[in-house]
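S1.2 Input.
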Amino acid sequence: MARYLVVNGPNLNALGKRATGHYGTKTLSEIEASLTEKASALGVEVEFFQSNHEGAMVDYIQGSSGGAHGMVINAGALTHYGYSLRDAVADAGLPVVEVHISNIHARERWRRRSVLADVVRGQIAGLGWRGYVAALEVLSQLVAEEESA
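S1.3 Output.
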């Protein structure tokens, strides 16, 4: 069974109470429940990780990417300056979809640049919590297509 990592960065543990105008009212655990349900429908497994610390995220990716089939990542603010995280994502050698709950391209100028953009397959931004579900669905389809090719 295919296994996908779902990695969340700084402040995403505060979803549901943090800047709800940008990030909505769903908590991270509610988003994870939606992803678990979608994973079951797709016949895949998901493994969740969240940290407010870049080094912990790097350690997790390095330690967990073996045997994984892909990754969904919302790096939070590390999206814009987390170069060691970017390198860990690149080194993992997995297909990755970057997710942002808000539309980072319509916000402050500094939020518009992603240091991950050149090492991920694609980016989903501005669809709220549904972006995670869309990312898992697309990623599992990409992996299945590539495995059957």
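S1.4 Remarks. The beta strands are 3-8, 45-50, 70-74, 96-100, 122-125.
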